Amino acid sequence: xxxxxxxxxRMQSEMNALMQVAMKNMVKGLLEEVAETGLPGAHHFFITFxxxxxxxxxxxxxxxxxxxxxxxxxxxxxxxxxxxxxxFTITLNFNNTPEPMVIPFDAITAFADPSADFGLRxxxxxxxxxxxxVVADEAIEEIxxxxxxxxxxxxxxx
Length: 158
Description:
The chain contains three helices and seven strands; from the N terminus they run αβαββββββα. It has 158 residues and is α+β, with helices and mostly antiparallel strands. The longest helix has 31 residues, at 7-37.
């Protein structure tokens, strides 16, 4: 039996991973701007994330109410928005009770700004519990197999 390298599959997988990173970096940049200057005009953000993802820190009652996924809204009232390299922290108001939370960027599965009719979907990425662990090619393939692949030709001027 002859082993072969599936370059097309690898290229699609690599391109998807690069696009995911680029789009999450864009979200990170937007949050950095909002942390500095606030939300401009009518803009508001919906951010959906996996609540069970490593590094997510929520009040126990929120984790119980949203055991898999949660969507937060950054609009009129939020406080203490701080952006780190791999996560952000924010305090939101739930029933007149401020609740701090920590959300790793890798936990985000969707970002939307309805005022601009803009939205993104992400694959939730696994986290490594130790530096020695390596995510196998099969795991990456499983994560990205249902992902939408965007051809860069779509954005080129003709």
